Fold this sequence. Notes:
Elements: E1 9-12, E2 23-24, E3 32-35, E4 42-44, E5 49-53, E6 56-59, E7 64-69, H1 72-78, E8 80-81, E9 87-89, E10 98-103, E11 109-111, E12 116-124
Antiparallel strand pairs: 1-6, 2-3, 3-12, 4-11, 5-10, 7-9, 7-12, 8-10
Amino acid sequence: MNVQPIRIQIRRKAGCEDVPLPQYMSEHASGMDVCAACEADVTIAPGDVKLVPCGFYMALPVGLEAQMRPRSGLAIKHGIILPNSPGTIDADYRGEVCVILANVSRQTFTVQRGMRIAQMVICPVTRVGVEVVERLDETVRGEGGFGHTGV
């Protein structure tokens, strides 16, 4: 099946020409790897959270969002996660794209310029209207939540 990709506009930040732009790393990848554009190494001690710049700006078409998600290799090998995962980038945001990284391991981790630090998935957005009502319809589940079906 030959599907035409949706186009998004990306502009490099001045001085970041050496940092790879987001790109798919395999034919059927759903996320594009995003690289660090830090001017100097960023050290993330155990328990720390750091904001890492990515060296580009983008314009998404209305009706789409970008979701920043952790890279599984960094998570399993180094305990590096995105604490707000998925991080949302709205269609009207025009600032530099950055990623929030957290270290949940017991070892210090160093982010270097050009390192792949997250993956970006472009997703459709559904907007809804809120309707205030006096009563909701009943369901079998009802108010059961937070482990009510077992561990």
